[in-house]
Structure formats: C-alpha cells, structure tokens
Specification:
mainly alpha; Four Helix Bundle (Hemerythrin (Met), subunit A); 3 domains; two-stranded antiparallel ribbon
C-alpha cells in the first residue's frame, strides 16, 4: 500500500490541478469514498439477509439510492463535495463499471434467491470493494499532493471499520445460506479479527505504523458508544465462530445489532475527521465508583508486576513469580484501557475531561514502556542485571507518579461533578492495595541494591526511604478510613466496616514486622519469601482479598438495603469475639428494626487495641 501511494504521489506531482480544493472538500470526498466501500458490503449483507427472510426491500433500495447519489457527488461535486481530482476520476469510472452489474444483480431485493443468483452477487461485490478502496487511496494521495493533510492513519483506520463491520456480517449470512461455507468461514474469521485489531489500533495506537492513540475526550466518548453497540453484535458473531453454525435467531440479532454499530461508527468517523473539544457530560454515581476503584486495581497490578519481575531476578519464589507476572501484566493493561476508553457494559465512563484523558494517556505511554521491558525479559533477567533492573525500577516509579496525577485529576472532577460519591473514601481504600504491592516491591529493591557491590545502578538508600514512606502512607490511609480525615473522609462507626478493617490490620501487622526486618538489614531470601507468601496463599492473595472486601463494605454503607444483606454478622472480631444476628433475618442483631438514623442511639461503644502504636478501633456492638 505504501509503495502504491508513493507511485501515485510521483505521478500526481507531474499533474497540474486545474482547480483548487479546500481541506473541507477533500474531507467530504474521502468520507464519501469510505461510505461507498461500506455500502458495497452493506448492500450485499442486506440482499443475503432478504434471502433468509430477514429485513426489508425498502432498506436495500434506500441504500442503492444512497450509493448512486454519493457516487454522483464524487464525480461532479455538490453538497459540500467538489468534483473529484484527476486521478480519482479514473478510479470512479472504473468503480462505476463494476457497480452497474452489481446493482442489476441486486435488483429490487425480491429474488428469486437461487444459488446462482446468490453466488453472482457474492462474486460481484468483492471486485467492486477493491475498486472503491483504491478510490479512497487515490483521494488521500491527491489531497497530500495538493498540500492538504486532512486525514491521518488513525482516521483512515476509523474509516476502514465501517466497511469491515458490514463485511463480517455479510460473510456470516453467506455461511447461513450455505454458500461456499468453508471459504466464507475463513473470510469471516479473518474479517472479525481484522475489525478487532483495527478497533484496538484506533483506540490504543500502533506505534510501528505511526498510528496515534485516541486522546480526544469527545471522540473517546463516542467510541465508548461504538464499543457498547459492538459488544452486542460481537456476541452474535462469536457464537457463530465458536459453534461453526448459524441459527435463524443469529440472523435476526445480526440484522438488529449491525445497524447501530454502523451508526455509531459513522458518528465516530466524523469526530476523527473533525474533532471537537467541548462535549461536557457527567458520569453517573456508579461510573464514578467503578472508575475510582479501577485506578486502585491498576496501581495494584502494575506494582505487583514490577515486584514479581524483581523477585524473578533475585530468585525469590522464582517459578511462581514467572507464572503470576503474566496475569498481573494483563490485568494492569486491561485496567488502564478501561480507564482510558470507558465501557458501557462494565459501567466505566470515558474520561470526563480532556485533562483526565491526557493524564491517562501519559500513564499509558509509561505503562507500554514498562510492559515491553517486563515481557521481553521475564525469562532472561538475572540478579546481576543491574542496568535493566534500574531501568524497570525507574519506569515503575514514573508509572506510580503518573497514576497519582491521574487520580488527583479524577478526584478533583469527582468533587466538582457529584456530592453523592465518597470520592476520597474510595480512593483511599483502593490506594491501600497499590501501596501494599509498592512497599513489597521496594523491599525487594532494597535487597537487590544491597547485593550490588559498587552501588552505581541501584540506589539502596532511596529504595529504603521509599519503602518506609509507602508503609507510612498505607497506615495513614487505614487510619483515615477509620478515624476520618476532614473534609472528605468521615469517621467510621459502621460495625461491618470496622470488623473488616480489623481483619486488614491483623494481616498487616505481621507483614509490617517483615518489612521492618528488611529495613533493619535482613534482606535474606527467607525473609523476602515470607513477604511473598503473605501475598499468595493457596491460589489467592489474602491481603488483597481483605482490602477488596473492605472497599466493598465501605461502598455498601451508602446503600442501606445492600448493607443489611451483607454477610458481616458472622465475621469474627478481635480475639474470638463474634457478632451474632437473628438467623431468621438478614439484619445484624444490633440493626433489627432500627432505621438508619437511629443506629447511633442503640449502640454502646467498646475499644479494642489494634497494634503496637496503641491506636484504637471503636467498635459499636
């Protein structure tokens, strides 16, 4: 494709354009050419669906008229389009010669739908598609030759998605019709994969092709709509792919869901061609909760991935670390894409401001660097690779810094948009999970630094200071969630929350003892292994589980009914004490028959020590 474009540029450099075209006219022309390629596939899909008894002939005829009108615009101009440049005119004439027999084969969509008629339409549509793709390429080259850089590779790929979304549906219907099933199934699977790769490439960028990631908040918001529409169609297409069969219900769903996908893709294409910067919207309460929680999940998994990498290098639980690091990398990558793109299905908003979008994308750039370093060296890194380890350490710190900036921006917007979400409470609760992994990672770095004879690469003193700093902030978050921190974090008196925070504290104290041993010079592999084992026991992470449950209970405090049904009545408190409830009801004993505003009047308070720092936890029973 690149060589074809270079040849076209050379030829066009010799051609004098008799008329000048504006940026807008080139944009309209290129988009119309993209619509033509899409319509060649949409018309085929509609015709084949009619053969299955799905759809209406009115839709088919409307799209035939649309194709004719757009082709006339491309040839002669009108409605914002100029008559096509010299090179494009030749391509348009070639496409018209292929369009005429294809249009005749479609007829009025009433059949008869014989195998010969169906095969004829199938055979005619692909040469037409090839000719129309060439028109797109010619139009782009003509604009560049004329000094108009109106479209980048990102927008090109966004335009390709329109065509692919209809092509994959067309191939699915051909399978249902029993037409060249084996060959069409291969095409179907390939088109499905190409659509997914193109969609991800448009959103995430493709560095080796110079495709930039999508960063405009308004475009991301529309692409979230694309994703929501696509997920419904994707379910149908994946069912066909995995079962190697197509049911009548699949055909009805394909017809129902393919049109909304196309509508959203066309809206997104407009924004890739002509971005807008003002599209204010508010995230819902549920979306804010999920996105703030996901920030903590990202921090936890990204720091965990770095920790496991350093454990592999230092020989601490070597085999398990090699297995677990892949899951941590995948989880961190998914988290950062959810934050960057949003997801209607999973109730994540797209970035609610351009500042937040920019923060997420800076974070993503840093993450790609560390991800690449980890994946390339998992099975090669050793204890003396201090240069590599120092690079990964620096990237890990940079990622944590960018994550902090992104979270700060999100919190500011959360406070601005809503009073119904305990933004700081969620942030502090999930931040504890990040800090727990971070302090563990820094303990390994202290040990690695100690093993370096000259100390040129690894800054042992800095990592020791970071480790103690992270430990301090973990305890600060824990303290604030219990005792409050004005103005955003209230004092906690809810029994379920206090019980779970006590469980978290009980897991923290022996972990802290191990961290202090490292701080005091014990960097033996036996101590480091105990640190690792405190985070992986029989297939689960007890501390992460406990902190996750604490976060959930904190959020349930906002919803009285949800909290009543939370099984906190059987959780143990302190040294064997247990709260008992009435087994006939789902309410804790101290809450039965009591309205939310009355709880404080029915409770007596009891103090239980939590640790060597003599802080106390007030538990109402």
């Amino acid at each position: 494709m690149a060589s074809v474009r270079s040849l076209m540029l050379l030829l066009l450099a010799l051609i004098h354009h008799a008329r000048a075209m504006s940026d807008d006219q080139y944009k309209v022309g290129i988009k119309l050419a993209m619509y033509q390629a899409m319509l060649s596939q949409k018309l085929s899909k509609e015709y084949f669906l009619l053969a299955k008894g799905v759809g209406t002939t009115g839709d088919l005829m409307k799209d035939i008229d649309r194709f004719d009108a757009q082709h006339a615009q491309l040839v002669s101009g009108g409605n914002g389009a100029a008559a096509g440049p010299v090179l494009v005119q030749g391509g348009l004439a070639a496409a018209l010669k292929l369009w005429t027999p294809f249009k005749n084969a479609l007829g009025s969509g009433t059949g008869p739908f014989t195998n010969a008629a169906l095969t004829n339409v199938m055979n005619l549509n692909l040469p037409l598609l090839d000719a129309l793709e060439l028109v797109i390429e010619e139009y782009i080259v003509a604009s560049e030759t004329d000094g108009h850089h109106v479209i980048d590779l990102q927008a090109e790929r966004a335009g390709r998605e329109l065509e692919l979304s209809q092509k994959v549906c067309k191939e699915a219907v051909l399978i249902a019709l029993g037409i060249d099933v084996e060959n069409n199934f291969k095409k179907f699977r390939g088109t499905m994969e190409m659509f997914m790769e193109t969609l991800h490439g448009v959103l995430e960028g493709v560095s080796f092709m110079d495709v930039a990631p999508t960063t405009n908040m308004c475009t991301l918001k529309k692409m979230r709509d694309v994703g929501a529409a696509w997920e419904k169609l994707q379910d149908v297409l994946e069912h066909i792919m995995y079962t190697h069969s197509v049911t009548d219900e699949d055909m009805y769903k394909l017809h129902k869901y393919s049109t909304p996908v196309l509508t959203e893709l066309e809206g997104a294409l407009d924004l890739y061609f002509t971005p807008i910067t003002v599209c204010p919207f508010n995230a819902t309460t549920a979306e804010w909760k999920h996105v703030l929680e996901e920030a903590g999940v990202l921090g936890m998994h990204s720091q965990k991935a770095a920790r496991l990498f350093f454990q592999i290098a230092f020989g601490v639980n070597y085999l398990d670390s090699q297995v677990l690091i892949s899951d941590a990398i995948v989880s961190a990558h998914h988290s950062i894409r959810y934050l960057t793109e949003g997801s209607e299905k999973k109730v994540y908003p797209s970035p609610v401001s351009q500042t937040i979008s920019a923060s997420y994308n800076k974070m993503y750039d840093v993450w790609l660097g560390i991800k690449g370093a980890l994946e390339a060296n998992i099975f090669a890194v050793g204890p003396s690779d201090f240069g590599l380890l120092a690079d990964v350490e620096a990237q890990s710190v940079a990622l944590a810094d960018e994550a902090y900036i992104a979270l700060h921006d999100s919190l500011a917007e959360c406070h601005h948009q809503t009073q119904d979400v305990p933004c700081e409470v969620i942030s502090s609760a999930v931040h504890m999970r990040t800090l727990f992994q971070q302090v563990s990672k820094e303990a390994i770095l202290v040990a690695i630094g100690k093993s370096e004879v000259n100390g040129e690469m690894m800054d042992q003193e800095a990592n020791l200071a970071h480790m103690l700093h992270s430990m301090h902030y973990w305890e600060k978050d824990h303290h604030d969630l219990i005792h409050g921190h004005a103005p955003y974090i209230p004092t906690t008196s809810d029994v379920c929350i206090l019980q779970q925070m006590k469980k978290v504290e009980d897991l923290w104290l022996p972990f802290k003892k191990l961290i202090m041993k490292v701080a005091n010079g014990d960097t033996s592999k036996a101590t480091l292994l105990k640190l690792d084992q405190s985070q992986w026991n029989s297939g689960h992470d007890p501390m992460a589980d406990a902190m996750t449950l604490a976060s959930k209970i904190l959020l349930q405090k906002l919803d009285w009914q949800s909290r009543l049904h939370h099984p906190c009545i059987s959780h143990r408190v302190g040294n064997g004490d247990q709260l008992h409830g009435d087994t006939r009801r789902n309410e804790p004993a101290n809450l039965q028959g009591v309205r939310p505003h009355q709880q404080g009047h029915r409770c007596r308070s009891e103090h239980r020590g939590l640790g060597k720092d003599n802080r106390t936890l007030r538990i109402h029973v």
